[in-house]
Amino acid sequence: MALDTSFNRVVATTLPLYAPRVTESIVGAISLLWKMAMMDGVETRPGGTQIVEPTILTANTTVRGYTEFETLNTALQSDPNAASYLWKIIAGTEGLSLLEQGKNSNSATAPVDLWDAIINRLALSMRIEVNRQLFLDGTGDGGADLTGLQVGLDFAGTFSVYGNIDSNLFTNWRNQTVASPANSILSGVAADELAGVQAMRRLANQCSSQNEWPTMYITSREVHEVWEKTLITNERYIREAFDDDMVRSGFQNYIFKGGVMVFDDLIFPNTLGASAATTGHGFLALNLRYLKFVMMENFDFVMSDPIRPFNQMADTIQMIMHGNMIMNNRRRQGRINFRTA
Questions:
Q1: Residue 166: what pLDDT?
Q2: CATH number 3.30.70 is the correct assignment for the domain at 6-58+83-144+292-327
Q3: pTM across the whole model
């Protein structure tokens, strides 16, 4: 049977139609990115050497009380600070051998069906990898990973350089932290569970400002189940308190202190290092008004045309995303590492 040479032509004309669908699929299946997108926190920007995000770390010293005829203080203020983040790349490939194409060339639609299958596999793999890296510190893959929440949110008693701003020097660039209670929230002891929930409340309160509260809380499945356990007596009331949009999109969630509460299998301890200071089950209080996922224009999960290497009997496509997670107000974010023992 002769090879159906329409394969590449069909694929090349179909790829542009797949790209928006793939982006929507990836963002829409990750609870953190989905909620960020709902709050206009997923965006594309033109390229540049870095992603630059203005942030306010110092107060305007001219603002104070004045008497009726007193001269206003016109001292020029220093330029607003700006956090800067590197562009990171997440990419993957899929390919079909000429033999596979030949076997599926018996109808005009077969190439499209086959292509759809491998695109779905690649998109699923990209989605899993993006979600994994959202909780990392950016050191994986030789420093190529996303600058995720593990470095964006320091644990209790530590400071770091994040967004090229040193939180040891700028106190306004420190996230909120609450030390883990002395005993593990997972001990099964009611007093320990209550102490853990109280620590969660304390962190939420610390992250609040006037009438502004965290919009999302993410923790491990184990900690989430302990928190659910404390709600059993109010089960009917609590089940009526959830984010309708998230429910319609398939995300199970409750409301905690006015924000959506979810769990993610890839949060700590799965993504934490082995040192004693950083192990434990994470609980993150996030204000998504100040957290963004930025992608480079024309590189938001785009796909290349089929490429046939000269030494292979196969056509290969690439899926590429240039971007990173960025933050412009660290003080409104918080983190607890609950002890595991």
A1: 92
A2: no
A3: 0.84
